[in-house]
TrEMBL record:
InterPro entries: HTH_HxlR, WH-like_DNA-bd_sf, WH_DNA-bd_sf. Residues 14-111 form the HTH hxlR-type domain. SUPFAM superfamilies: Winged helix' DNA-binding domain (SSF46785). This is Winged helix-turn-helix transcriptional regulator. Keywords: DNA-binding, Transcription, Transcription regulation. It comes from the Bacteria.
């Protein structure tokens, strides 16, 4: 079998693009981060300040569809649901963790760049 063309990742029809879009968005990354252990929906929502119920529901469904998490109905009254990472989802914890660590380490530098850019644009626009 021939190796795939490495240039395909830059093409609009690359099959990895929708997957990357679905798993690398802010809420997906944060939802997976809080799933270091199985959690119920409301527990996830409480931990992710600012997420709406609708957005969290959509995020969890996408992650489940992509095989990153599993949804389990609990035999409780009323019926409860919990979410947990699959082995595939677990395999993303390390790279997501590195990305998170990089973001935290460079936040001040990025904010400085944003302020400089905004000031320059305001000055040039005047």
């Amino acid at each position: 079998m021939a190796a795939p063309d490495p240039g395909i990742v830059y093409r609009a029809d690359c099959p990895s693009r929708p997957i990357l879009d679905q798993i690398a968005d802010k809420w997906s990354m944060m939802a997976m981060a809080v799933l270091e252990e199985p959690r119920r929906f409301n527990d996830i929502k409480r931990r992710l300040e600012g997420v709406t119920q609708r957005v969290l529901t959509q995020t969890l469904r996408r992650l489940e569809r992509n095989g990153m998490i599993v949804r389990r109905v609990l035999p409780t009254s009323p019926v409860g649901v919990e979410y947990s990472l699959t082995p595939l989802g677990e395999s993303l914890r390390e790279p997501f963790g590195r990305l998170y660590d990089w973001t935290v380490a460079h936040t001040a530098e990025i904010h400085d760049s944003q302020r400089s850019y905004d000031e320059r644009v305001r000055t040039e626009g005047s």
